[in-house]
Amino acid sequence: MRRLAPRPLAAALERVAAGLEPPTLLARVQACWAEAVGDVVSAEAEPVAEREGVVTVSCGSSVWAEELKMLGPELREKVNSALGERAVGELRFTAARPRRRL
Does the pTM exceed 0.85? Predict the structure, then answer.
């Protein structure tokens, strides 16, 4: 009897995890956020809520919220491009809570 070599668990987990996220606009935006906006912005801000196409982004400080507010239209286009559709109508930035640093 021939035994098969162990297979990496990561491939199986990726397939399972892909089916677990809720099919909401917020979940889709959260999934593509870091890639769409870049490492610097994603380290300081994260999408936390969505209502009728308006995505609220929580920033680490009011300075970041104001800076990203000015970049809002450009960031919205990048997110919509990553989504492959014009699903996000507006990004709103708040300094709701400081981000945890890992």
Answer: no
